[in-house]
Amino acid sequence: MKLSTRALNIHPSATLAVSARAAEMRRQGRDVIGFGAGEPDFDTPPHIKQAAARALSEGHTGYAKPSHGIPIAREAVCEKLRRDNSLSYAPDQVIVTVGGKEALFLAFAALIDPGDEVILPVPYWVSFAEQIRFFGGMVVPVIGAAANELRITADQLRDALTPKTRVVVFNSPSNPGGFSYAPEEVRKLAAVVADRDVVVFSDEMYDRLLFGQGRAHLSFANASPAVFDKTITINAVSKSHAMTGWRAGFAAGPRELISGMARIQSHSTSGTATFIQYALAEALTGDQSHVETMRREFERRGRHMYLRLSSMPGVKCFAPTGAFYCFPDVSETYPRLGVADSSQFCAKALEEAHVALVPGAAFGMDTHVRLSFATDLETIDRGLDRLAKFLKQ
Ligand code: PLP
After folding, report:
1. CA distances from residue 318 to 77, 137, 176, 311, 349 in whole angstroms, order as listed
2. Is the CB of 123 under 6 A from ligand 1?
3. Three-state DSSP state, 301
4. Would you tell me how many other CB atoms lie within 10 Å of the CB of residue 267?
5. How confident is the model at residue 14 (pLDDT cuts 50, 70, 90)?
6. pTM flag (> 0.85)
7. Which of 30, 162, 218, 332 could lock onto 183 through a cystine, CB 3.0 to 4.6 A?
8. 117 Cβ contact list (under 8 Å, min separation 6)
9. Is the pLDDT of residue 17 over 80?
10. Is the peptide bond before 173 cis (omega within 30 degrees of 0)?
11. Which segments of the chain does DSSP mark as H helices, in order?
């Protein structure tokens, strides 16, 4: 069968490929420890499940009306953005989406024409690059320097902008980097784009998962009044509320853009399932104590993983300040292990040490690997014991 060029140009997700190989090895009876998962190992809090069950028993089983978000869900998004992010949006500036991923997809679909340039800080979450290419956009990578713990600077952003730049992607806290930008850095980046005709996609999926004393999250849209009108804020309850399987995300931004996205959504997914939108509203406006419980646990595990990784020969790691990933540079070990890149490193670690990691190549950095600490401490220790032994060979 002849597939479209578009379909052929999409690479399968590297993170899912690692999980699939690890699952296959487990089926063969091998004890594989997975550091690949990009999802919390916690269950969705009971009051959120109850909200979905209640919506079902009350008969909320028809199409969502309107498809881009029932009023209660869009109002809940406004409340969350006001409470956590000091952002003031009206419900007609909000769209409810099938996870954060659909919000990004619709926003790229609504903005990118073939040949448009999209600035993408490296390392980047894998789907950004694939989605940009899917719409014919040109990825303009801006590489975060190790000296700045992989965060890009305002000067780098300024140098990358051209008259063809249509979109700037910004993701803090970062997947895969595990770093987050300080408010002052966000303000400096925002000043660079303030008078430029670009749209900023601010992916704030991990805004509630910040670690370390005095850490604060500044939403890009909140950096200055000038950037508010050119920023779309994208988020979901997937990571913050342990709801990856529910597929509930949202975006808020300029009305014109949101309504363009809503038009595309109305001809594709028709939006998030209605009863799940009730659960989304509960997650965003109900009891939030579980978010802090999870955050604290991730912080403890992240610190532990970072300290252990840093003591391994040839591994250079920064302390994670957000999300739930460590992203060490392991390239010094390549010659010793007889591997040429991060994919070979991960394949060898999986086959020989039975530890599943994600190659940095998937995130634009072939010198690094990603380890998720969304798994319990005991498993983390067992996996790191194996990794330490593997690296000593
Ligand atoms: N953006 C980032 C930075 C992510 O890490 C992820 C999930 O891994 C997503 C978006 C997509 O989230 P969702 O599962 O809500 O579609």
Report:
1. 33, 32, 12, 12, 21
2. no
3. helix
4. 8
5. low
6. yes
7. 218
8. 137, 138, 140, 162, 164, 165, 166
9. no
10. yes
11. 5-9, 14-27, 46-57, 71-85, 99-111, 126-134, 154-160, 183-193, 225-228, 255-266, 274-285, 289-310, 334-337, 342-348, 377-391
Q: How far is the CA of 372 from the centre of ligand 1 (A)?
A: 14
How many other C-beta atoms are found inside a 10 Å radius of the C-beta of residue 92? 12
pLDDT in tens, 202-257: 999 999 999 998 889 999 999 999 999 999 999 999 999 999 999 999 999 999 99
The answer, yes or no, to whether any atom of ligand 1 lies below 6 A from the CB of 235, is no
| Domains of the chain as residue ranges with CATH | 5-43+290-391 (3.90.1150.10), 46-285 (3.40.640.10)
Q: What is the DSSP string of 154-210?
A: HHHHHHH--TTEEEEEEESS-TTT-----HHHHHHHHHHHTTSS-EEEEE-TTTT-B
- Strand bridging mode 355-356 / 33-34: parallel
Question: How many Cβ atoms sit within 10 Å of the Cβ of residue 6?
Answer: 11
Closest CA to 19 of 382, 350, 342: 350
Best mutation site among 44, 125, 220 for ligand 1 pocket (most ligand atoms within 8 Å of CB): 125
What distance lies between CA 82 and its chain's CA centroid? 21
Quote the CA–CA distance of 106 and 199 in Å, as a whole number: 14
Dihedrals φ, ψ of 286, to 5°? -80, -160
Distance CA 226, CA 82 (A): 18
Q: Which residue has the tokens 């028993």?
A: 57
